[in-house]
Amino acid sequence: MSDNMFRLDGEVALVTGSSRGLGAAMAVALAGAGADVVLHDRCCAGDTERAIRESTSARTTCLVADLIDRA
């Protein structure tokens, strides 16, 4: 099976809870597969963003928001 089947070049992934744990791991993996990544958490996901920028050429940005609060 070809690794190209799982490439995400040209795609954008939104990962919630991306400042630590599974969310951070998924964000780094998606960036490694070629996706640009929007990181979301209630606090800054700066460590995850830094890890992505150091290990891939993916574009990334952080979105800080509490999605529980509808306002």
Summary tags:
71 residues, alpha/beta, 3 strands
What structural category arises from helix and sheet content?
alpha/beta
The biggest beta sheet, please? 3 strands, parallel
Q: Give the oligomeric state of the chains in this entry, treating copies of one chain as homo and distinct chains as hetero.
A: single chain
Strand segment tally: 3
The order of strands across the largest sheet is 1-2-3
Shape: elongated
Order of helices and strands: EHEHE
Extract low-pLDDT stretches.
none
Fraction of residues in H or I helices: 25-40%
Distance between the termini: 47 Å
Q: What is the residue-mean pLDDT, rounded to a whole number?
A: 91
- Total helix count? 2
- Alpha-carbon Rg, integer: 12 Å
Strand content: 15-25%
Describe this structure in words.
The protein is an alpha/beta fold and 71 residues long. The chain is built from two helices and three strands, in the order βαβαβ. Strands 1-2-3 form a three-stranded parallel beta sheet, with helices on one face. α1 runs parallel beside α2 (46-55). The radius of gyration is 12 Å and the shape is elongated. The mean pLDDT is 91.
